[in-house]
Design goal:
Length: about 240
Amino acid sequence: MPSRRRRQATNQGALNEAARLADRLQQAGYTKRDIARIIDRDPSLVSQFYTKNKGAAFVPALREVLTAIEAGGITDLPELTAIAARHITRRTTASGTRARVRGKAVLITPTGTGTGRVGTQAIASGSTRLRPLIAEAARQSLRLAFTVRLAKTGYTHPSGSRTDSPGIRRGVIQRADHSEERSYGSAQTGGFDAADFARRVDAAGGDVTAAVHQWLVETGRINPDAHILHLEVRTWRPR
């Protein structure tokens, strides 16, 4: 059975322009999740470039990003995100007004499983879309874990340090732009009390980014001047 990548290559002629550009970005070393962050959308949308022929609205932005990478040598994700944002236009209604972006409902399964992710633009405004997820997790007395991404120099402990995140068996994800993703909390280690994090978010005026950043600084895991580039929150019901 041919691999997914091989099947994708054999069907190259059937791909739309967004998928072809996404392929070129992946050849340049970026993942689908990276591409989603660059265009400030959910990673599932990038997959739909291939499966549902979506992505036409992002073609100009993806072209500009590729030009910036190939001709300008720009690799920093926040900078590429800023470039893409200048070339992404919102949908319009029949009357010509800007269409509203559909908001995501807070989805927590009966087992307590829930996930929320935010990228550069949302983080800059406080990651407020994660606040309802954390609040609902607190209401249901769930446990919580999160993954952050920031420049390697922002961390105070070396990669894989047990002092930084003890007991979590995972490979630290390192990126081409000299940033690194690290996870804090898991079902195996018990995670964190969602109610405690909800109180921290409330104390920060609803700014989830600030609340997580403060916890990381308080616990000696990052430098005070470090900037979070990506944030993911996961929840589950304790056994």
